[in-house]
Amino acid sequence: MLYHAVLGGLVYGLYFTLVGLGLNLMFGVMRIVNLAHGDVIMLGAYAAWALFTAWAVHPLLAALAILLAFTAIGIPVYYLIVPRLLRARDAEMLSLILFFGLQQIIEAAATIAFGTTERSIPGRVLGHHPVRILGQVLPAAWVWAGAVSAVCVAALYLYLYHSPPGMLTRAVMSNREEAKASGIDVDRVCSLAFGIALALAGIAGVFAPFMLGSVTPAIGPDLNIAAFAVIVIGTLGNPIGTVLGGIIYGVSLMLMQTFLSAWANLLPNLLLIAVLLVRPSGLLGRRVRRA
Amino acid sequence: MGRGWRELCLIVLPTVAIAAWAPNLYGNVLLLFNFVLYITLAQGMNAIYGFTGYLPFGYVGFFGAGAYGFAIAAMAGVHPAAALAVAGGAGIALGLILTPLLRLSGAYFAIANLAAAQAVYQVVANPALAPITKGPYGVSLSAVFAPRASYLVAVALMGATMAAIVWLRNGRFGLALMALRDDPVSAASAGVNIVRARTIAWLLSALVASLAGGAFAWQISVFYPETAFDMSISIFAIVFTLFGGAGTLLGPLIGVLLLYGVYNWIGIAVPQYFQLIYGALIVVLVLFLPNGLVSLLTQRGIRVP
Amino acid sequence: MSPEPPPLLEVRDLVKRFGGFRALDGLSLDLRAGEVLGLVGPNGSGKTTCINTIGGLQRPDGGVVTYDGRRIPGLRPHRLSRLGINRTYQSPRPFASLTVRENVLVAATEGCGSTPPDLDTLLASLGLAGQAARPAGELNSAEQKTLDLARALATAPRLLLVDELAAGLNPTELLRMAERLRALADRGMAILVVEHLMGFIERVTDRVIVMNAGRAIFGGRLAEAVRDGDVKRVFLGGAHGG
């Protein structure tokens, strides 16, 4: 049982890495907090659900379509709001409020469009039989979600560390002003990162109906808390650190559900607070507050 | 401190008088109560966000703690006045527990505070604690139900909170807080004990929210954990404050009167459409008027109380 | 030698580490009331760390700081302020949303352990009287630097730590600033000046300490320092420390 919980937690945690990945990329590059992140995930879930219900599109194909569509939508959205936001005196704080407004818009629009009925995609679409891994049986959808997350993390790593636009992105992450001064088109770099962040959230959404059982337009805020817990544990602003956060989150959640299920829902919040208090900079962080 | 007395007489006292008299003119006391409640919460938010820059996304945690502090005491047969004291005590206690969060800055603090409020909610709503909190099944305080008295208590609390904002706006302590909001490092050089100052502001705003929660519990007398810990309470308090202008006395007041007025005008019938408009309003506000309505005047060098 | 009063500030073997890096590696210095001491050295030699450590922003990892006959290890800046130690910052840190007058008012009410100076006179003496009602965030950077100084002076300090106040000032402002610091010292204030501009150091200081790699390699008059072999090596060779 312990072993099963740990292994299941690893796969589950890999999925929650993907849930937090886009949020962390956005914070790392732009120092803004996307409170609508969970709702973008929700939109991804509904996109996958709609594609499946209307034309029986396979979720993996839907993920690909969402990757392109969300990136393409994200770039103009970036230009519409972020440059203006970043000119404000306290942009980090205001971003919380602004994206809360967006969150309200998305949730309301989704409620109007889709109603409040719970929607799901049948699990058999991603494989009829559970998968045996290292002697344990896991649902096929979990394994797919974990695998796609791993691919996304690897792709983001390659982008950031081995591609020219990724290098520029890291330059902006380490110091926006200096990057601007050295002639980098910061807005172009950021708009792409913004689009990618939304796309990552959208892809996480494709698997939400499987991982959560079903989705409604109201799942955004809860997903957001989970995403926050993951990225705070894994170091805010360090996208690759999200993996560590996701896995710690997944494993501890599975252990809690197995052994102390009544209090399992407290875990993300308590983990988040504990990590922030003990190591405000995250487990991999080195940012120190001076006053 | 002549300016402070003037603001007290010209703004705080009339507001309190109008609010206290209003039930004689308008029958929907619950709606009036909600206005009074949100003015109080917005000013309590103002004390911490407007004067120190900490944005407590989980402000509702104090409100809920106060509501449940009142409810648990009232269910145990305590007199409502004493139960209100318990509510305030619950808020102060939670505030003290969360004081270490003040070490965090910016988004870190906001997120941690949000998580803390959620955690308190999850503890209160947990079926395992049903013998004490009634868990997810909600509480009923019909034994102490007193809409008129609880309304007047809320009005008094609103007056006291506004008076506290006047004190912060015009007094030495508020100035020190604003210095620390602008730059904690040089505020320390200028002699401000930053840890003590922000802890006091934090506990003050926690006390306000928890007493408001206590008054709320008394007023509506039947409620569930979701009601007392509703995230939109935090959000409303933030948005009202921001819309009017944080760090001023009038800003949050105007914010509540305008926005909560609009909310009640169009909001109740079709909540989704209201949510849509509300969201759009917030976005536009942050992008085009980040310092609130009063900044239209302050930018022109006019001092707004 | 005439019998001199004991130094107001005595620093002995001060050590400050950042990870494995020793930003201060056994620094010692004395500063008397009415004296201006310059701290010079290449970038990274520990000058600002020295001010931050004496000023309470960073805790020393070793050594002793004695002020007015009393040890002040690790006291927070607001306590030091009330004891009469204050400072300016390398890049000015005004309270941007408060007016210029409120900026100095905070310091006078919160940070002054004795009798604060008259604020209007103070602002006038620093050429800020015309700006008193403006938000500090609207000042230009030279004015903000002057405001930093005004705020420090509002606490009536006996020891003033000045971190690169001259950088960014034009020659006229520079001259005026030098005269101000001299005048303060003549009235009995002890001043520690970190600065790159040698002309300014020359004009203001009685004495300099040349630092390299967290240590003092020379102490004495600036004119003697430029003839010193070690000092030449550090400034011209640039091979060590840096």
Give the helix/strand class of chain B: mainly alpha
- The number of distinct helices of chain B, counting runs of at least 4 residues, comes to 15
User: What would you call the shape of chain A?
Assistant: globular
Order of helices and strands of chain A: HHHHEEHHHHHHH
In helices, the fraction of residues of chain A equals: over 70%
Give the terminus-to-terminus CA distance of chain B: 13 Å
> How does CATH name the architecture of chain A?
Orthogonal Bundle
Q: Proportion of β residues of chain B?
A: under 5%
Report the CATH C-level class of chain B. Answer: Mainly Alpha
Under the CATH scheme, the architecture of chain B is Orthogonal Bundle
Main β-sheet description of chain A: 2 strands, antiparallel
Overall mean pLDDT of chain B stands at 92
Order of helices and strands of chain B: HHHHHHEHHHHEHHHHH
Q: What class, by secondary structure content of chain A?
A: mainly alpha
Task: Provide an overview of this structure.
The complex is a heterotrimer of chains A (291), B (305) and C (242). Chain A has 291 residues and is mainly alpha-helical. Chain A has helices spanning 2-30, 37-55, 59-86, 91-114, 140-162, 164-174, 176-181, 186-211, 220-233, 242-259, 267-278, and strands at residues 131-133, 136-138. In chain A, 72% of the residues lie in helices and 2% in strands. In chain A, a hairpin with a 2-residue loop joins strand 1 (131-133) and strand 2. Chain B has a single domain, classed as ABC transporter involved in vitamin B12 uptake, BtuC (Orthogonal Bundle), CATH 1.10.3470. Chain B is built from 15 helices and 2 strands. Chain B has a two-stranded antiparallel sheet. The two termini of chain B are 13 Å apart. The mean pLDDT of chain C is 89. With 242 residues, chain C is an alpha/beta fold. Chain C is built from 9 helices and 10 strands. In chain C, the strands form 2 sheets. Chain C has a 6-stranded mixed beta sheet with strand order 6-7-8-3-9-10, with helices on both faces. A 4-stranded antiparallel beta sheet of chain C has the order 2-1-4-5, with helices on one face. Chains A and B meet through helix 3, helix 4, helix 9 and helix 11 of A and helix 5, helix 9, helix 12 and helix 14 of B. Chain B: It is found in: Cell membrane. Chain B: It is a multi-pass membrane protein. Chain B: This is Innermembrane translocator. Chain B: One of its GO terms (cellular component) is plasma membrane.
